[in-house]
Structure formats: C-alpha cells, structure tokens
C-alpha cells in the first residue's frame, strides 16, 4: 500500500505538468506568459471550435480478448470529441454543435444551455435529453450539503431566489476569487527548459491574425525537476501567499450576506472567517499549513526518486512528453492552441505493477480556436421540450427501454446494443447465499423465485384470488403469462402450455420452473462455476 501511495503521488506530478506546461514566470520574446494565462481567466464570451482526441497506445499482439471485447475496446481506445461551433455568452448561456467519434463510429449532437437547463440532441435519438441545472447542483458534492438542508414536498431543492444585484455581486466576487488564487499560482510558474516565442501570422477561424507563436515542451526527464522548482518558488514567497489568503478572506466575507440569502453556510464550505483581531494569526497559520504541505509533497517526490527510481524513470522517460503551441494576439488572448501529451511507460523487469500489457501508453491532443473574444455572443436558444427525457428518467430505465429512445438504424442504437450490450440482462442466483435461492427438485428440475426474478428482469406481477392466480406482464418482450398456484399449466399470451413443474409456494415464496419460465421470456438458463467450488445459476437474455 505504501509503495502504491508513493507511485500515486508521482502520477499526480505528471498531471500537474500537463496542466501548467505553457506558462512561465518571465517574459519570453516580449510576451508576458503569466499575464497571458491570467488573461484566459477573464475570457467570458467567445465563439470558437475545439477538439479533444484520446488514444490508448496498444500492442495488438498482446490483446488476447474475445471478439466481443475487441469490438468494445475499439470504441474506447480511440475517442475524439469535435466541437465545430461553440458560442459562449457567459457561464450559464452557451451552445455547442459537434460530433463524438468512438473508433470508426461517430455521433453528431447539439447542446444548448441556459440558467435553467441544458438540452442535448443526439443523432438518432427520438427525444431531446434535458438536464435541469437544479438537479445538477444537487448532485455536486460541494453544494450537496446546502441543497439537502431543506427539501420541498415534491423532493426538489428548496432554493431561495437571489435578486439580480445579488447574483451579479456573487458572480463578480467568484471571478475575483478565481483570479486571486490563480494569479498567485501562475506568478510562480517557472519557464520550461525549452520555450520559444516568435511573431507569426496564423489563420484562426478563417481570419488571418498577427500573433506571437509560443512553443513550449517538456520531456519526461524534465518534468520532475520542473515541478520541484515550481514548489520551491511557491514556498519562497510567503508574503505574497499571505496577501492572497487575506484577499480570499475579504472576498468571502464581503459575500456572506448574499451567500446566506442563498442558504449557503460559508463556514461549512470555506471554514470559519476569523474576526479582525484574530485575522493576522489565522492567516499566518494558513500560510504555514500550505507551505508545509508543499514541502511534504516535495519530500515525497524526492523520496520516490530514491526508493522508486525504476518506477519514476519508467514513467518520466524520453517517450513521455508534453508539448504546447499557443498563438497569442496583441491583447494577450490565446486565439489558438495545440496541446499534445504522451505518456508511454517503459517496462520494469520483474515489476508486475508496471505491466500495462496490452496497453503501452496514452496519447492526448487538444486544439482550440477562439474569435470574438468577450464580444457580443448570441448562443442558440435552449428550448426545453415538453416531451424531453430527463437524465433521471434514463437512469431509471432498463437497458431495453433506453434502446427504444433511439432509431433502430442509428449509430447510437448500434453502439448501445451491439457493442455495449445494454439490453443484455443477467441474473446470478446462489444456492448457498441468495436470500431466496434456486431449488433443485429430486427429479433434477430447477425452481426459481417468481417475484425476485421478475423484478430483476423489469417485469410486473399482479396477484388475485388471495395469491392463487398470478398475471405477469413483461414489457420488454410484450409477453403476458397467467399462472395458478399448484398448477403446471401456464397461459402465455393466451396460449396454454404445460410446464415441467407446478407453481409452488415454499416458505411463503412462489417458485416456478426455471427453464420453462425463462424460455417464455426469451432467455436461457445455465449453471456456472463460482468461487469456492460453488455453483451459481445464471439467467440471461438479450433483447
């Protein structure tokens, strides 16, 4: 466990490097790179396009999977998200058009959002999918404790409404909070070892723009020392860190009344804001805690270099790299960017944890173009349809019900059914462990609990005549089965057939013959080896 925790911190360092590669604490070629990064925090509105591409680097000879697993792996091993048309007005109002490519398959989509909801239209979907912002907030851990404090009768968060002035004040303070904290972190960033800035003309969304072209790169061997030098810079400037924390306190305190009106307990989220007399001491304690935390992390990194040298060298090798090309205009707005990351660990002999076969690495590339930065942007309107499906409704559906929301000949239907097999149902029952276990009769006939099995298949049961007559309705196969306790006869969609064993009640639980029942619902039954040499009964069907 200790060994893994050390390795986990090493991988966190790699992630941090990916996020900060393109920055520097000093101007290069006349471009203040730190100011450029701070400027990106102030971009609220823009039009643009973006792509994000992800690949798992594979050793095909080592895959050794079934054809079904290979088909699924083909989907997830190469993913590309393309946003051709982005219109962002502010944090609440935006629209996106693009496509998602999974292997050789692609799905077009449109997404429009406002303060109330996000509306997603997928190619092949019969109805739009609606995500209500209130429900999104309720699922957010940070705000979970806030919205869960009081619930209205219908179960929706009871959130006080803020005035427009309060909302604007809160939004402004939130932006200042981000700029304050990020500003301190950005100011301390060191330059990568390899960085170059040169004037250029670049085509950005069809427009020729005079820009400064910033090229930066870190190899795997350079990432570790770069991160450590950043840590040294952070802990060496306690005075500016102190000013940053004081500014955060002031910002939060200035919004206490507004946050209180919204039902937010600032103390539970941000901690207790000290009174003026205790402010200096509290800030000093916070500074010391942060500095000590950074020092401890650096010590862990240095310890890993000594004790886990093979692991560190395997991750941070010459085939691991981070590259960035940024095109910056005269206002220090990043108009175009291309960021590429490759992590390709080398093998460590005798170390099973470093064996990633058949995956040999990952590769990520992100590109972005922006125009009309902070201009007057008009996103496509988010129209909430009356017949739209909510995300909650999707989560409550059986797999076959999800499939019915898509056209049979659509790419989305094909992926969900034939690659992801979401309409496949599988039930495991254990003679020793299940609460209502399968029963094998002296004649070798397997019986299964009717209600438990039906519920898990998504079918419904109605009992009449004090439970002696039972009607089952399976929406998935449009099948109705009528049964009577103690009888072998079953009426399946009105046609009477004889089953191998009568409907039987055991300890208050109704049992039916497994093979007859499951066959009537389009499935199959078989026994399979389980752990500890036990057998389990498997009920399976794909709709």
TrEMBL record:
Coiled coil: 287-314
Gene3D superfamilies, sorted: Copper amine oxidase-like, N-terminal domain (3.30.457.10)
Pfam families: Cu_amine_oxidN1 (PF07833)
SUPFAM superfamilies: Copper amine oxidase, domain N
Keyword Chloroplast attached: no
Domain Copper amine oxidase-like N-terminal, first and last residues per copy: 434-530
PROSITE patterns: PROKAR_LIPOPROTEIN (PS51257)
Signal peptide location: 1-27
Protein origin, superkingdom: Bacteria
Keyword Amino-acid biosynthesis: no
InterPro entries membership: Cu_amine_oxidase-like_N, Mao_N_sf
Keywords tagged on the record: Coiled coil, Signal
UniProt name for this protein: Copper amine oxidase N-terminal domain-containing protein
Source organism (scientific name): Paenibacillus spongiae
Organismal lineage: Bacteria, Bacillati, Bacillota, Bacilli, Bacillales
């Amino acid at each position: 466990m200790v060994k893994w925790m050390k390795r986990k911190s090493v991988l966190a360092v790699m992630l941090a490097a990916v996020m900060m590669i393109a920055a520097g604490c000093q101007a290069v070629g006349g471009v203040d790179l730190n100011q450029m990064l701070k400027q990106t925090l102030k971009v609220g509105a823009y039009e643009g396009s973006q792509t994000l591409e992800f690949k798992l680097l594979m050793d095909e000879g080592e895959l050794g999977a079934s054809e079904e697993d290979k088909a699924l792996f083909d989907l997830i091993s190469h993913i590309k998200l393309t946003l051709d048309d982005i219109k962002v007005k502010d944090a609440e109002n935006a629209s996106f058009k693009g496509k998602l490519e999974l292997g050789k398959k692609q799905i077009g989509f449109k997404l429009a959002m406002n303060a109330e909801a996000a509306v997603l239209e997928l190619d092949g979907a019969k109805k739009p999918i609606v995500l209500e912002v209130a429900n999104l907030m309720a699922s957010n851990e940070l705000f979970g404790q806030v919205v869960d404090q009081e619930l209205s009768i219908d179960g929706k968060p009871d959130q006080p409404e803020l005035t427009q002035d309060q909302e604007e004040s809160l939004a402004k303070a939130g932006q200042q909070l981000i700029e304050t904290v990020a500003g301190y972190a950005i100011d301390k960033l060191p330059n990568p070892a390899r960085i170059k800035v040169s004037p250029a003309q670049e085509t950005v969304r069809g427009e020729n723009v005079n820009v400064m072209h910033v090229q930066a790169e870190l190899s795997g061997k350079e990432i570790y020392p770069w991160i450590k030098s950043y840590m040294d810079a952070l802990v060496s400037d306690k005075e500016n860190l102190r000013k940053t924390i004081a500014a955060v306190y002031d910002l939060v305190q200035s919004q206490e009344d507004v946050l209180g009106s919204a039902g937010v307990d600032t103390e539970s989220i941000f901690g207790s804001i000290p009174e003026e007399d205790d402010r200096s001491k509290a800030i000093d304690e916070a500074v010391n805690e942060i500095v000590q935390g950074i020092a401890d992390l650096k010590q862990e990194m240095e310890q890993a270099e000594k004790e886990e040298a093979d692991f560190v060298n395997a991750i941070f090798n010459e085939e691991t790299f981070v590259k960035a090309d940024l095109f910056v205009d005269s206002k220090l707005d990043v108009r175009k960017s291309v960021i590429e990351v490759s992590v390709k660990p080398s093998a460590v002999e005798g170390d099973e944890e470093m064996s990633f076969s058949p995956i040999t690495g990952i590769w990520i590339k992100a590109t972005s173009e922006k125009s009309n930065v902070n201009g007057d942007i008009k996103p496509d309107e988010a129209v909430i349809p009356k017949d739209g499906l909510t995300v909650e409704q999707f989560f409550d559906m059986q797999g076959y019900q999800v499939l019915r929301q898509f056209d049979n000949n659509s790419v989305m239907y094909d992926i969900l059914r034939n690659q992801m097999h979401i309409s496949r149902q599988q039930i495991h029952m254990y003679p020793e462990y299940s609460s209502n276990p399968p029963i094998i009769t002296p004649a070798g006939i397997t019986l299964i609990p009717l209600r438990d099995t039906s519920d898990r298949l998504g079918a419904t049961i109605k009992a009449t005549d004090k439970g002696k007559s039972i009607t089952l309705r399976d929406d998935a196969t449009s099948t109705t089965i009528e049964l009577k306790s103690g009888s072998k006869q079953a009426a399946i969609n009105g046609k009477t057939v004889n089953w191998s064993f009568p409907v039987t009640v055991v300890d208050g639980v109704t049992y039916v013959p497994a093979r007859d029942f499951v066959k009537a619902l389009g499935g199959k039954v078989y026994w399979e080896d389980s752990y500890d040499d036990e057998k389990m009964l498997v009920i399976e069907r794909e709709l």
